[in-house]
Amino acid sequence: MNAASRTRLNQLPEWTALGKHREQLGDAHLRELFADDPRRPEKYALQVGDLHIDYSKQLVTDETLALLRDLAATTEVFALRDAMFRGDKINTTEDRAVLHTALRAPRDAVIEVDGENVVPDVHAVLDKMGAFADKVRSGEWTGHTGKRIKNVVNIGIGGSDLGPAMAYEVLRPYTARDLTFRFVSNVDGADLHEAVRDLDPAETLFIIASKTFTTIETITNATSARDWLLTGLRAGQDAVAKHFVALSTNAEKVAEFGIDTANMFEFWDWVGGRYSYDSAIGLSLMIAIGPDRFREMLDGFHLVDEHFRTAPPEANAPLILGLLGVWYGAFHDAQAHAVLPYSHYLSKFTAYLQQLDMESNGKSVDRDGNPVEWQTGPVVWGTPGTNGQHAYYQLIHQGTKVIPADFIGFAQPVEDLLPGLVPQHDLLMANFFAQTQALAFGKTPDEVRAEGVPDELVPHKTFRGNHPTTTILAGELTPSVLGQLIALYEHKVFVQGAVWNIDSFDQWGVELGKVLAKRVEPALTEGAEVDGLDASSRALVAKYRALRGR
Ligand code: F6P
Question: In its UniProt record, which GO terms are filed under biological process (predicted)?
Answer without folding.
Answer: gluconeogenesis; glucose 6-phosphate metabolic process; glycolytic process
